[in-house]
Amino acid sequence: MSCCGGKRREWRMDVTAKNQENQPVRLIENEGVIFEYAGPAALSVRGAITGRPYRFRSAGDRQAVDFRDAPAFKAIPGLKRLQ
Predict the structure, then answer these.
(1) What is the per-residue pLDDT across 13-69, written as a single tens digit (0 to 9) for each?
(2) DSSP, res 39
(3) Above 90 in pLDDT, residue 7?
(4) Could you tell me where the beta strands, DSSP code E, fall in the chain?
């Protein structure tokens, strides 16, 4: 039996590359919105949409907040959106 000369492997790589080219651009879900805390003590907040816990340990602490949770963070006293 003779080898196919690597044609099958080339074909698979070609199909994979073409499939990747046709994929729509996806939003990066973990892109964060930066908030800075200015309160006197530590603050723990759970994201309204993601349920993710966020912990601001002291004044000046900065956290990247999921963009889906960011609108609710604007209403929290002591938190300031930086970006």
Answers:
(1) 554 445 444 444 444 455 689 999 999 999 999 999 999 999 999 999 999 999 999
(2) -
(3) no
(4) 32-37, 43-46, 53-56, 62-66, 79-81
Q: What pTM value is reported for the model? A: 0.61
Report the C-alpha gap between 37 and 26 in whole angstroms.
Answer: 30
| Strand pairing category for 53-56 and 32-37 | unpaired
Distance CA 35, CA 57 (A): 13
CB 61 within 8 A of CB 36: yes
Angstrom CA distances, 54 to 8, 30, 47, 50, 75, stand at: 50, 14, 7, 11, 15
